[in-house]
Amino acid sequence: MKTVLITGAAGGVGLALAKSFASQGHALVLTDRNAAALAATAAKVGSKTEQIIADLRDASDLQRLGARIESPEAPIDILVNNAGIIVPGPVGTLDADLMRAHIDVNMTAPMLLSAAAARAMKQRRSGYIFSIMSMAAMGPMKDSAAYSASKFGLRGFMASLSLELHPYGVGVGGVFPSAIDTPMLAAEMASPDGSPLNFVGNAKPMPPHDVAAAVMKAMEKGRLETCLPASDGFFGGVLMLFPSLLRPVLSYLEKGGQKKKQAYLQGLQTK
Hints:
EC number: 1.1.1.325
Keywords: Oxidoreductase
Order of helices and strands: EHEHEHEHEHEHHEHH
CATH architecture: 3-Layer(aba) Sandwich
Domain Ketoreductase: 2-183
CATH class: Alpha Beta
CATH topology: Rossmann fold
Oligomer: single chain
Family: Belongs to the short-chain dehydrogenases/reductases (SDR) family.
InterPro entries: KR_dom, NAD(P)-bd_dom_sf, Sc_DH/Rdtase_CS, SDR_fam
Structural class: alpha/beta
């Protein structure tokens, strides 16, 4: 049995991850800033969990989480950086604090928590650090520059971390999903600036349990990066080799994605 710490555990993907790890008999340390939602997740998991209420933008809360991760009495074997935010909007329309929030939650917090995990896991010469990223780390999204920047940065950090920790037997990895059927996606798409690229190549957003299953498989195989779907990741990687094509190609894809976005929104209204 291992002990797994999951950030953003109150959300759709967080719940799916908690259920998946619990089904394998692992102990859970769940953290989120929403106490009621976190308690609901713990109840749905159906096994004993440790709950930590923490805001990833709060320095003292991050220190508490870091200390918990490095605790020698109850070591964390697997860290899953799952928490994230996205508020779409053109550059210049988002206020400075909201832009900083994307960096704080999506990149800085995972970096600091991963650093704490790295210190402890290097000494034990075992452990795993995993991050739930986004297809936005593979290619840019218009009207989501702050979000894209945070995910691009986290991708670089995780890749570098994998090189540092490999000699110590510590695994590092991440998944890069496209649209996931969660309240976070619904809130993003409710904005007129929500990117229709979320729907390119996918008739429907994937359920959270598909992401959780991909995490389990990636950890089992020791994969650094897993794109969901793989075709989107391949296309994004190729497109980034030719930056001059970004604007015309993505503009074309947005037109097709716009139809699927509207269909998605209509589906939400009928639920």
